[in-house]
Amino acid sequence: MYVTVLWFTINIKTCGKKLSSCSPSQRPAVQRSVRLCQAQPDSTNSSWTEPYSPESFGFSQIGIIRGPHGVKGELKIAATCDFSHLRLLKTGTRHLLLPNRKYPRPVVLLNGKKASQPNTFIIRLKHITCREQAQQLKQAQLFVRCGEGIELENQEEFLARSLLYLEAWDIHSQRCLGKIVNVYTREEILSYAKPGAQDILELKRIDGRHVYIPFVRPIVPKVDLENKQIWLDPPLGLMDISFEENEEPPRIRGYLSAAKDKINN
Predict the structure, then answer these.
(1) Domains and CATH numbers, the chain
(2) Beta carbons of 37 and 161 less than 8 angstroms apart
(3) Among 31, 48, 30, which residue's Cα sits nearest to residue 39?
(4) Which of 21, 45, 203, 232 has its CA 20 to 30 A from that of 88?
């Protein structure tokens, strides 16, 4: 899927629209953050199209076993999300999905350590004591239940999955604008742009057109997970920069200065 990177600035003309904003004192620039947690469907991953995939039951993939490490049953596993290190280095229950199986089974992670390769870990599972047993787990997937044991750093950090399908409301008009249908983390966006990119929410408006919303506190002042709502204070013109689902999104250029002070909810 084509991803457009959004940067915003105060009073800048872009794509024929003029974006304006309140003064910094009215709009405290607080940079929020998102943990991926396998949030958005990936068109290259067929498991997202299956009604009985582990994700549909609330599991989140944290790694894929690449094969045995050594002769004592240790496993080499490739991390697949940005909180994997929190779940691959600590003892506890995980969920293992073997190839050609539909539902993960619980397993006990005894210990884990970082490998020399990037995004790779060496782990040991209970009852796996030799290389032959470890070899049988090649290409198996390791899961946690979404949100299980994940420690968010502060009130400004959210699991991306928790933001999906929230109703978006205008904080001034109290009008429903649509629903959040996708979340793009800054790590994903950095593959398209230079540093400074922010997490992006994709909003599907009531009329079916899509809009990209920077996930920063001046524009998203309130997230109400309990009521499944997200409240927006969009700059003038932002909601007009929209696109159809099957057309190329607009290219928007400009910058929103980084937050100087952190303000918690």
Answers:
(1) 12-37+153-240 (2.30.30.240), 50-145 (2.40.30.60)
(2) yes
(3) 48
(4) 45
